[in-house]
Design brief:
The complex is a heterodimer of chains A (116) and B (113). Chain A is an all-beta fold. Chain A contains no helices and eleven strands. With 113 residues, chain B is mostly beta strands. Classes of the chains: A mainly beta (116), B mainly beta (113).
Amino acid sequence: DTEVTQTPKHLVMGMTNKKSLKCEQHMGHRAMYWYKQKAKKPPELMFVYSYEKLSINESVPSRFSPECPNSSLLNLHLHALQPEDSALYLCASSQGLRQGPDQPQHFGDGTRLSIL
Amino acid sequence: SQQGEEDPQALSIQEGENATMNCSYKTSINNLQWYRQNSGRGLVHLILIRSNEREKHSGRLRVTLDTSKKSSSLLITASRAADTASYFCATVVRGSTLGRLYFGRGTQLTVWP
C-alpha cells in the first residue's frame, strides 16, 4: 500500500468531457507533484506545488489545470483532452523544499487515463 | 530533457544471480536516487546517495556513485522473481531549490524463477 492515494485508478473520457484527478497524502508533506508517464518511458514532470503554491509549470497545455486546495490534497482538472494525453498520471509528495534537496519522493499508484 | 541515461535498457537473469544497472548523468548533482516501478504501479524510492558519498547499502541493494565520471550503479544481489520491475535513476541538480528530479530512461529487469 502506498501512502499517497490517487483516485480514480482508471478513467476513460471523451475529448469534450471535464474530469478531475485527485491525490491525497497525510504524511505532512509540503511539496506535491504531478507527473505524466507514457508506456516504457520515465515520468515527465508537469507541475510542482510547494506550500500550496505553484512553483513549477513545465509548459503544460492549459487543458490541464492543477489545484492545491490544502496541504494534503492535489487535484488535476482535465478539459478538452486529446488522444495523445492518454497516459498514467502519477502524483508524488516530499517533505518540503525548505528541508533541502535530499528528500525522496513518495508516489501514488497513478490514474490510468484513456481519451477516446 | 532527461538528465540521466541508463544501461542496459533491459536485463534478464535467473533467480539468485546478481543484477547490475548503470546510470550516467550530465551536470553536477546534489544527490542521485534509485526508484523501482512494478508494472501498473507507482514508483517506489529505493535509495538515495549524496554527492559526497561513494557507496551505500540497503539490504540486498548496493549503490555506488562516481562524481568524476558522472555515473552510478545499482547492484541487486541474490535476485528474486519479485525484483522484476523497471528501475529508474533520478538526479537532483546541484543548487536546485525546486526539488525537481531528472529521470533516466530506466532499465527493465526480468528475473526468471
